[in-house]
Amino acid sequence: MIPRLANRPIANSLYLDFVAELGVRGFEGELSASYADRTVQATDNSIYQVWPQVVVTPKHTDDLIRLVKLLGEPRFQKLVISPRGGGTGTNGQSLTDGVVVDVSRHMNRILEINAAERWVRVEAGVVKDQLNAALKPHGLFFAPELSTSNRATIGGMVNTDASGQGSCLYGKTRDHVLALDTVLLDGTLWRSAPLNDAELAVAKQRTDKVGEIHRLLDDIQHTHAELIRERFPKLNRCLTGYDLAHIRNAEGLFDLNAILCGAEGTLGLVTEIKLNVLPIPKFSALVNVRYTSFDAALRDASALMALGSSSIETVDSKVLGLARQDIVWHGVSEFFPDDDVPALGVNLVEFIADDQTALQAKLAEVTGILQRDGRQHGRCGHTVALGDAAVGRLWGMRKKSVGLLANMQGDKRPIPFVEDTAVPPENLADYIAEFRALLDSHGVIYGMFGHVDAGVLHVRPALDMKDPEQEKLIRTISDGVVALTRKYHGLLWGEHGKGVRSEYAPEFFGPLYPVLQQIKAVFDPHNQLNPGKIAAPPGQELWKIDAVPTRGQHDRVIPIAVRKNYDEAMHCNGNGACFNFDPDDAMCPSYKGTRDRRHSPKGRASLMREWLRQMTLAGVDPLQETTALRQHDGWSNLLGRLRNTLRKRQGQSDFSHEVMDAMQGCLACKSCVGQCPVKVDVPEFRSKFLELYYGRYLRPAKDYLVGSLETMLPLVARWPALYNGVIGSGAGKMVMQRLGMVHSPALSGVDLVAALRKRGFAMATPQVLQTLDEGRRSQSVIIVQDAFTSYFETGLVLDLFDLLKALGFNPLLAPFKANGKPLHVHGFLGRFGQVAARNAASLRALAATGIPLVGLEPSMTLTYRAEYAKTLGKDAAPTVHLLQEWLVRRLDQLPQNTVAAERSYTLLPHCTEKTNAPAVSSDWQKLFARFGISLKTQPVGCCGMAGTYGHEAEHRPMSEQIYGLSWAPVIAAAETPEMLLATGYSCRCQVKLIDGVQLRHPLQALLQAVRSA
User: Fold this and answer.
1) Which of 238, 697, 711, 922 has its CA 20 to 30 A from that of 212?
2) Cα 572 to Cα 415, 577, 603, distances in angstroms
3) Helix residue spans in 760-899 (DSSP H)
């Protein structure tokens, strides 16, 4: 039996006193010292892992003021804090062994939009894409672009002075900051904006910390002007944080924000930001130039820049190859045709204009030059993407580069530690040639992409950080890259801030480093604000790149066999794609509903990794425990599980309970599997965890009810009126509620087999299949049943048979057998393996006849290519097509233009289907177009039902909350709900339950069209 895992205590109990006192003083946000919260906040997007002592999530600025005032009291002056936004930093900027101050959960309001004057005011936790979505109706946008824009917060962008694609045109975050509201360490809330000399004089006369800060910085600017000009490089990506060169801006105004932007929370807590915003370019295009080598792509950049582009991004062959294996390739493949010579590098050259004619003229000029030059400069071809949709898809692929690299197979994964160097663009090709030689000399593979126009290239060497010998290369390679950047007059920190790499700051700043120490001291006299980053007081050290604990060091404790068995969690690299703010994006519904990091794929993967490590330290092998559990019946160790459950109810702590709390919130929608670039598979490792957890504790009754659903339905369906009457009665509902279930759907009351036989359709029995001649066999298709449509939506299955018959096919019904997905979702993995083996054998026998198998319900059908393949092996898993996949391959056999619809249908795709079978929408569109019907796809997130999740009492409130984020507005805005179509049974069920609207399946719209012809 797995042991009780003790929660890791905090190292300094003074932190508990601190949060307790915060609560007494009226702190309104959350205060947590739980091991789970601390574990989730122990990592960012870097290689490091540092456990904080406590986590606080302030609700508003007053909470931040309360926090810093308490921090300044003598008894707490040894405590340290670090602000945190989206956690997308690649250099450990937000990691701390003190207090994490997470502003992303609550402080995420857009406070004011002034479209006329083109500025906005936002809280620090607002996500960049969230802001741009709000600005879009005004024709405006916040310009600095990031690959992490769907989860990076504005506060985080300010703290790292972030920039990315298009920085040569639009500049960095600092260039758009009009004012910052910062809580200083004495509790003062100061709004900093550029000051003229008269305003500066007033500020310097103040007797508080504000006056002290302005006096010091003004003195530094005058005293060290010549040295500053000498030491600070003249680059597009000029220095971030403590930027002495810009204390006076281009207009000669004193600008404190030049010091605060990029300071990484070492000087104060930014709470609100006023930004200037720009008009959205009306027309855009991307010219995608392919090259015979990556070096050729880099060396051609200067020639392309001379063509008047707004930005140029580059991608190497490693990233392109990984993109081909990802969901993203579905949307961009048309722009990367196969050449005679494989493309080993690509430049994405953007052109923008306010006039379509002007853009077309520019494109004609550019493409004419490219065609005339032919294969000069190593070019092997180009394509053009026009319009927001096409350009957006390509930028989406480029944004995904980081995650794509992390999905390289094996234990060696590309990691960030030297990835954002900046050199003058004219030096970039030579610099990268030496950079590559350095990596090649150590036998390291790597991927490269970046902003070639700005001289910034993201280089991610692939290392297995669980190997102590490979870990040593962090120091070797970093020191080598620092020497190279110095040689080519560049910066080690060109884009992603300093963080742990601050150890190189004293060498870089030289005689100016004591000036940075002066600035740090005036803002933070006791070194409490994110210490160890950028500048440290005299006598204290900065963090060092090889002296901070890494994730690899913790993970290597776990035995190799265990790591391999749980690789769905082990390879999470912290990039945070699952923190996507967009409610219309499928991943991750539980995070969107809670804004709690624990309830995200990254959070759950972090907890799983730590749980496995704790198990190892306790001397337990989870693989052996799993084998032992499956060898005994469900009644084994009942007394022990009962005793442990009683102790749990009495409050006995166990880290497993904290992990369980995070796992229970998962909807098992599998969007993480399709959308996470690293392919973190929460439902898979969640099932493994549940199996072991319930080897120690009793299961709730509802799990057995759900797990036996597919077995029970054929029996209770014999008496549908009785079943429906019981579950619909007050007593029945009360019993279901006691069992933990609500809103149980009613049986259709239709005997599917009898109804089909009455209509002349046959079952797929050996006898029937043997009677089919070759012609009839070629037109046959076997429909694989699922419990939900066969018993709750029987009419839909009948419509499917009618449609296939009308299209000239011979549909046959496979005998009903349990699929097993409910068992897998709830961690009955031993039973699932047995059910899957039986069902797979039956379906393989049917498939051996040469007749294709087709499933109707997406989540059940996709189980065959995912859970079945993993459990039984790919060769043993039957091939079962989604309906639209099978039909679209026979498009030429279908009738054409049978009807012209006056109105367009709108498809609301199932989240599992659209993320794990990305062609779903385009396949349906092709089918509808064949019949002359217009079909558009409406972007929607998860409906909140996800199988039985929304039927479980404990999850029903969150289910409805998730539904309200995306689906509810779409349903409410529909003038004609009958024109909305949904492929998922759970989606149709949820809409009917909440809004009383019965959505149709796309096949029913096609059937109507065929019948109307």
Assistant:
1) 238
2) 11, 10, 10
3) 766-770, 774-778, 787-792, 794-806, 821-825, 829-847, 858-863, 867-872, 883-888
Give 559's pLDDT tier (boundaries 50, 70, 90).
Answer: very high
Q: What is the mean pLDDT of the chain?
A: 92
Q: Could you report the per-residue pLDDT of 652-682, keeping only the tens digit for each?
A: 999 999 999 999 999 999 999 988 888 899 9
Q: How far apart are CA 483 and CA 496, in angstroms?
A: 19
Q: pLDDT > 70: what percent of the chain?
A: 98
What is the distance between the alpha carbons of residues 348 and 333, in angstroms, rounded to a whole number?
14
Report yes or no: 369 and 307 within 8 Å, Cβ to Cβ.
Answer: yes
Q: Which helix (H) or strand (E) holds 450?
A: strand 446-451
**DSSP string across 84-137:** ESS---SS-TT--SSEEEE-TTT---EEEEETTTTEEEEETT-BHHHHHHHHGG
**Regarding beta strands 780-784 and 853-855, do their DSSP bridges make them parallel or antiparallel, or are they unpaired?**
parallel
Q: Give 746-756 pLDDT, tens digit per residue.
A: 999 999 999 99
Which residues belong to CATH 3.30.70.2190 in the chain?
283-408+421-494
Topology annotation, domain 283-408+421-494: Alpha-Beta Plaits (3.30.70)
Residue limits of CATH 3.40.50 in the chain = 896-1013
pLDDT for the residue numbered 993? 95
Handedness of CA 31, 37, 43, 44 (dihedral sign): negative
Q: Give the helix/strand (H/E) hosting 177.
A: strand 177-183
183 forms beta bridges with 189, 269
Residue 211 buriedness (CB in 10 A; 0-12 / 13-18 / 19+): middle
Mean pLDDT of 373-379: 77
Task: Decide: residue 367, CB within 10 A, 0-12 exposed, 13-18 middle, 19+ buried.
Answer: middle
Alpha-carbon distance of 702 to 695, in angstroms, equals 17
CATH topology of domain 896-1013: Rossmann fold (3.40.50)
What single DSSP character describes residue 680?
-
Over residues 188-224, the pLDDT tens digits come to 999 999 999 999 999 999 999 999 999 999 999 999 9
- Phi and psi for 135 in degrees, rounded to 5? -80, -25
Tell me how far CA of residue 220 lies from CA of 224, 254, 527, in angstroms: 6, 12, 21
Q: Name the pTM for this structure.
A: 0.93
Residues of the chain with CATH 3.30.465.10: 107-279
Please give the CATH number for the structural domain made up of 107-279. Answer: 3.30.465.10
Taking only the tens place, the pLDDT of each residue in 518-535 is: 999 999 999 999 999 999
My answer on whether omega of the bond before 666 falls inside 30° of 0, hence cis, is: no
